[in-house]
Design a protein that fits this description.
DNA-binding, 9 helices, homodimer, mainly alpha
DNA sequence: CTATCGTTCGACACCCTGTTGACAGTCTCG
DNA sequence: CGAGACTGTCAACAGGGTGTCGAACGATAG
């Protein structure tokens, strides 16, 4: 059994978020002390978690496995994280932050045509979900029993819904899109559709859209729901 | 502590599905013996489970609570069900059966106008989900870690997707709907949208559509996605 | 050399699951 | 009516998971 604290993981979600700011102390969740000494251990736990989550569901991963994967004992794990849930939260925060970054970049460099702009909207949700599917699937699973995970996820969705609703309103105001359902309701339905369809595509359970087609399918529904005239015949 | 085996529950999902057929033996999941003697106990367990699930998530309900709620000890619980999962499965089967029944009834009595027909499609999914929201929410939660729950759910969705795809093809064939996305992909996306939007509406977490509006919103998206002309301007 | 502090883990208490074996009713048949 | 079979019941156990406590270890400062 190798005690090497850095297992080979292709692309962990941790990705050194804040090198400069060095948040003084976050007494809520996270490790107990912000000293930089055990940082490698913390990263090893996160990397181990993301790796294990690609193999089995969140509920089937034990704290002991997380600890052993990071080369430490179970009690030592609790020195770095207060629970298994906190590890998932840390992973999820990183993925959400990446999604936000990608989204903001897209907003600053909008595509020239409207189809391209909506494709950016959809792709910015899809990309981080796809590259860290294990974390996202685990978060979806834990959402039901963990209020903290649920809140992070809800806040994330809330921003996407607001942005999409604003975009729909803008298109209607400039006459590009016809009136129809309240923009907020429409944006809510479309965003949840994306979430669920992407989930099934990546999880592969139940009827699903092929991974290569999924953005085109979602985009097709968005365009018709936003721009389609109600009743052609 | 009352030993009364029938706790007061408003409308349990059990609903005595087959009084006459009396299936000889289902050796897979379910209770070990089909004799009618302990039937009340079995129903009491199911009723207790549905009642408890309205108060807390599936993961937080223990076998011991289920047993005590039904007026029996924990080992006795295992005489009736092999696990907590089997209880949820039995509850879910009843809800799914009810949804199927409602759907088949709608198919035999189609509304005269196309909007009414699509409303039937959406409402037949929504109604059982709504009247047994605790079971459905629990099933959604357990789906991630229970292959059996996942399979039941997937099969259920698969049928709805197939039926919706066939209906879309029929509308296109008779010239009522324009060509567009592959009908199967479109039906998949729309059905998952319904599932997720209904889930958030009933669970009340994250951005959601008001319960009174949800069928209208979903119907609006379906109609535009199916009948809307791609680009009006 | 010693005091301190960050870090580590053996051992513990507790909760939950699923199984075993003994036992109590009841029903049937000789 | 009494032996046997079968349903239903539970105390007790084994096993595995979580989270905590306190002793101990090593580096570093005084």
């Amino acid at each position: 059994m190798p005690a090497d604290p850095s297992p080979d993981v292709s692309a962990p979600a941790v990705a050194a978020p804040d090198p400069a700011p060095a948040a003084p102390a976050e007494p809520g969740r996270g490790r107990r002390t912000p000293r930089p000494s055990g940082d490698d251990r913390e990263r090893a736990i996160l990397a181990t978690a993301e790796q294990l989550l690609t193999r089995r569901p969140y509920a089937d991963v034990s704290v002991d496995e997380l600890a052993r994967g990071a080369g430490i004992s179970r009690p030592t794990f609790y020195f770095y994280f207060p629970s298994k849930e906190a590890v998932l939260l840390a992973l999820l925060d990183a993925v959400v932050a990446e999604a936000r970054l990608r989204r903001d970049t897209a907003l600053r460099h909008p595509a020239p045509d409207r189809e391209g702009r909506w494709r950016q909207v959809i792709a910015s949700v899809q990309e981080p979900f796809r590259s860290h599917r294990a974390v996202t699937l685990a978060a979806a699973e834990a959402r039901a029993s963990s209020p903290a995970v649920r809140d992070v996820w809800s806040a994330h969705m809330e921003r996407f819904v607001e942005e999409a609703a604003a975009e729909i309103d803008a298109e209607r105001a400039r006459g590009a899109a016809p009136a129809g359902l309240p923009s907020r309701d429409l944006a809510t339905a479309l965003n949840w559709m994306n979430e669920r369809v992407l989930h099934t595509t990546f999880a592969g359970h139940g009827p699903a859209v092929a991974e290569a087609d999924v953005v085109d399918v979602l985009l097709g529904v968005w365009l018709r729901a936003i721009y389609g005239e109600p009743h052609p015949r």
